[in-house]
Amino acid sequence: FFFFFFFFKQKTAYEMLRSLVGSEMCIRDRVYIFNGTKVVNKITPHKGKINSMVIYDNMMLTAGDDSRVLISEVGSYKTICEIKTKAIPRAADMLGNLVVVGDIKGGITLYKDGKEVDSWLGHHEGEVWGLNLAENLIVTAGDDNKVILWDYNNCRAVKEACINSKPGQKLKDNVPGKPKMPDNQSSRSVCYNAATKEIAIATNNGELHIRDIKDIEKNKKVINCSKRWIEQMCYSPKGDMLAVGTHANELLVYSVPGYELRGKLEGHATPLICIDWSTDGTYLRSLDEGFDMIFWKLPGFTKDPDGAVNTKDKDWETQSCKIGWSVQGIYPPGTDKTHVNYVAKSRDGKLVATGDDWGFVNVYNYPCGKGSKCYSLRGHSEQVPRIVFSKDDDYIFSVGGNDKAVIQWKK
After folding, report:
1. pTM, whole model, 2 decimals?
2. CA torsion, points 102, 105, 107, 112, in degrees to nearest 10?
3. Which tens digit of pLDDT belongs to each residue from 331-346?
């Protein structure tokens, strides 16, 4: 979601008799005051670097690395208002008694007369891949040690929690994009179980965190699944099992609510990227990076070499696997299968959407045969690794990887 604030009628340094040079021209923590081309004064309002400066109505606003926003009178430069921010401010603006601040952690806060009146949350570091529907909310997880619940009816984040408060080790070349945060504080897969009202968060060090939707800050259970990161997981239609696909080339199936390991399914030669359950819960299918799709028969978790034929009359609860008869038309001419990052089917089974490397969300009729035309939605500036339909299919939600944006598309 994007929030834009435009404060007009702001005087610039060039319109004032005494000109001030902004933060981008400051020497670290100093503000220089000029009379023409001559420096007549210099002040040090902050303990640390100044990140933003604004002149409005004979007032000067500065925001610094000391997590403070100061408003001073031009001329005397006496501080008349001090705002202590939640995190280091990177940008700030003011209009009358209103101040808006964007911080280093992706948050935006609005102040009136120095007091907070509203705030908006967001992701701020690395990439955002984790995305799932949770009742009338959506949940996202990223490389910034954040899990966020979003109220999409009101277009705002309503709850934020950290993935892990204690930093751990960082494995070399474990995750694409090389996140700055340790692997146990980063996540690229999250899913919701409507039957138990639980959120599963998969970390980049192979852990699985189970949390209640009403208390996303506290782990109910932590499971060590793998030594590699987890890209995809999916609850069964009844919510009694959880399938987890790892980059150790394993498909793990856990019982719910106890989360005991029911099956360790081996057969893939490359990391797992897609998992689907059949609607009746009798089959699983998994796809790996080498585009080898395996069908698994339940309850014995046995590999079915003829699964494509044996399941031709079955309905699938989801359509994340990006190969098969029903999605053969999702690839533009001249591209290979790696350009499509994710696939999602609408709840009514009439549409299928893809997220690609060019930042597009593409919507097709379902099933999608060869030569099918799509309606492409452009909003992301980076690849789209995850998409999901709302319960009533009125919306599509997408995350843009390195652009850290969550976009809501209306039908």
Report:
1. 0.83
2. -60
3. 988 888 899 999 999 9
